[in-house]
Amino acid sequence: MKILKQILFKKRQKLSTSILKMLRKSIPLWLAIFLTVDSIALGVLADQLIMRRQVNRLQRQLLEIKNPELLVKEVTAQVLPSGGYTTSLKWGDIGKKLVDSGAIDADKFKQIHKSNIDGQQDLDILDGNSNKFIAINENNSRLVVNLLWALGLVNKSKVLDEGPMKSGETDAGNFASTAGWTLGTKPAMELYSSQELIPLTPEQQELVKEIAENVYRPCCGNSTAFPDCNHGIAALAYIELAVANGLTENQIYKDILAMNSFWFPDTYVEMAVYFQKQQGLAWNKVDPKVALSKDYSSAQGAARINQAVQGVPGIQSRGGSCGA
User: Fold this and answer.
1) What is the β-pairing status of strands 130-136 and 85-92?
2) CA nearest to 318, candidates 257, 263, 279, 278
């Protein structure tokens, strides 16, 4: 038995030695295979990274090579489409209500909009029962701002009653949006937030305020919640109409951005060029809420954008103005 154990021990020892020798020979092979596969994978990854860098560099070169004047023309067509911009809301009887309330003197209003390039074709809105959609273009932008200005001034509004227009140090009657309104049959402050032309629930009034606080215009440093100029109070009126009609917040921002663009065309063409060149975003990909924010659409934001696009051929910058 002792001899048998010795024989088995020697055999196990011999087998173990054989296995160790085999492993010593096999491990380098396994390692070689692993390293080969790993190097191939790393090579593919490196090729992909190099290709991606080449594509990005090519894209940058194409943007630099592209005729900047052509870029401005293309952007202008996007910001200010030749056919204008049409909202989903109709004027309905708004014009007649504005006349009946004294917010608009029909004769005065028609006198300043008597030319075909200043909205004459839309003066029938004042008669009421209009099936025309609220739309804006290069020819009627002044008419639209004046109609909405009158509406924003006279409509009962929490923004007007409780916001900075009334709570600040300046008398509410001394702002451009109030003292500047001379097209009514009544004094501006007699009209101010006096009639519920757009019925709004308390919840809707809060939503109007919330949206208005996010909407700026390049002629002022204030949001639409402080509508101290004609464009600000006109934007407030549209927000009230849109909320009352159940439009989504995104749609409201989109509509206001289109109106701002026709009211301040140079500013928004500059902004569109900025987004295209600095962020690679086409105008229709820019978030309207972002574009209307203080960082971009306030007087300060617009000035920053203006500086950023200085020197781009084709840019015609005249700055923002409250003039209708």
Assistant:
1) antiparallel
2) 263
Q: Left (φ > 0), alpha (ψ -120 to 50) or beta: where does 246 sit?
A: left
Q: Are 105 and 185 in contact (CB under 8 A)?
A: yes
pTM: 0.78
30 found inside a domain = yes
* 314 in a structural domain: no
Neighbours of 164 (CB within 10 A): 18
Residues 161 and 222 in one domain: yes
Summarised one tens digit per residue, pLDDT across range 219-261 is: 999 999 999 999 999 999 999 999 999 999 999 999 999 999 9
Phi then psi for residue 130, to 5 deg, are -85, 130
CA–CA gap between residue 265 and residue 216 (Å, rounded): 15
For residues 281-310, average pLDDT: 96
- Pair 91, 237 in one domain: yes
Quickly list H helices, the chain: 2-65, 68-79, 94-101, 106-112, 141-154, 158-162, 164-167, 176-179, 188-191, 202-212, 230-244, 249-263, 265-279, 288-291, 294-297, 299-308
Q: Give the chain's domain count.
A: 2
- Whether residues 114 and 262 share a domain: the answer is yes
Q: Which of 119, 183, 112 is nearest to 153 (CA)?
A: 183
Question: Would you list the DSSP string of 153-206?
Answer: HHB--HHHHHSHHHHSSS-GGGSHHHHT--SSSS-HHHHTT-B-SS---HHHHH
- Tokens standing for residue 248: 């989504």
Per the structure, the complete domain to which residue 91 belongs is given by: 73-308
